[in-house]
Design goal:
335 residues; alpha/beta; 10 helices
């Protein structure tokens, strides 16, 4: 592993100036429908967005570290971006299942987790447009190493229902490719403006994509390093300019297990381990459905076994223990 590189860059953007000078470019007709609901003509935007990008950090040698513990919570749902009371004691982050080229497909027909998040937080699209005209590279991977991006303070201006509802014109739901095939009327009915907008902090990092066969030890270590870097960056950024370190919570799910074909149990396990190594206060894992909950519970049981043996093992030994279980790649879901 390389040495800690830490912060690569940080830039502060005025949200109203960002949205007016670098408006998001939604090219697909259905994205335009949702945008008109979220940001009708004459909309005003408030606050600031803090963008930062972080270099890969080296993993610690052991699991115990300073003896801190992370609370794990499973929720059988999807991201709700619940509004939090204004307080300095807790900072919450939501994962973006990113492409290495940050938000590169936000304006097109797809509606997977990444694109859905940008549609509901349109200033993320404006941020990409601004970065493309700046000296900052909008990359979450560089030279094969993770460089996760953090975006603090972005407005969530709408919610889009993606569940199956034939009566409202979405018999197959709206997730993934189904979004592009739906009628404009179905998108209009599925999109609800949020007034006033809520505020979200986003952690964008890319998972490995479309491997084959059995995961190697190097692949597992690289995934763990990506998670550790992103989660540690979230903790460090949350602590910035705070007189007392706040609790840091990350909301996540089956990162890298849709279009990228990752193994659901392994990817959940490595996020649990990465959260513990990064000393997060809490990791909220959104499982989606009963099958997802079962996969998470399997990962949780393995994590408990890892923790029970941690005192007698180095982290490299733990990675070897995980690799020896024999994990295999899944297949892409096409979305």
């Amino acid at each position: 592993m390389s040495l800690v590189t830490g912060l690569i860059c940080r830039r502060v953007f005025d949200t109203h100036k960002l949205m007016t000078e670098f408006p998001p470019r939604f090219s697909h007709r259905n994205k335009q429908v949702a945008f008109r609901v979220a940001c009708p003509s004459g909309s005003t935007y408030s606050g600031q967005i803090v963008f930062s990008r972080w270099g890969m950090m080296s993993l610690p040698g052991t699991l115990d570290g300073d003896g801190s513990r992370t609370t794990f919570e499973a929720r059988e749902d999807y991201f709700g971006y619940e509004s939090q009371p204004e307080r300095d004691s807790v900072v919450e982050w939501y994962l973006n299942f990113a492409h290495e080229d940050l938000f590169c497909a936000y304006g097109g027909p797809l509606f997977a987790q990444d694109e859905m998040q940008v549609t509901e937080h349109p200033a993320l699209g404006a941020l990409r447009e601004a970065l493309l005209q700046s000296d900052i590279e909008p990359l979450t991977v560089a030279d094969g190493e993770p460089t996760p991006a953090l975006i603090m303070g972005v407005e969530r201006r709408c919610r889009v229902a993606i569940d199956r509802n034939p009566a409202l014109g979405r018999p197959d739901g709206l997730y993934g490719n189904n979004f592009s095939w739906a009628s404009a009327d179905a998108i209009q009915k599925a999109t609800q403006a949020i007034l006033p907008p809520t505020i979200t902090n986003v952690l964008a990092m890319e998972a490995p994509a479309c491997g084959e066969g059995r995961y190697s030890r190097d692949e597992i270590a690289h995934i763990l390093c990506t998670v550790f870097t992103g989660f540690t960056a979230a903790r460090l950024e949350s602590n910035r300019d705070k007189p007392q370190p706040p609790g840091v919570v990350v909301h996540t799910g089956f990162w890298g297990c849709g279009a990228y074909g990752g193994n659901r149990i392994l990817m959940a396990l490595l996020q649990l381990l990465g959260a513990r190594l990064a000393r997060l206060s809490r990791l909220v894992f959104h499982t989606g459905d009963a099958a997802g909950t079962q996969a998470y519970l399997q990962a949780s049981r393995i994590m408990q076994a890892v923790e029970s043996s941690a005192r007698s093992q180095t982290l490299s030994g733990i990675v070897a223990q995980i690799e020896a279980i024999g994990w295999h790649w899944g297949v892409s879901d096409g979305n």
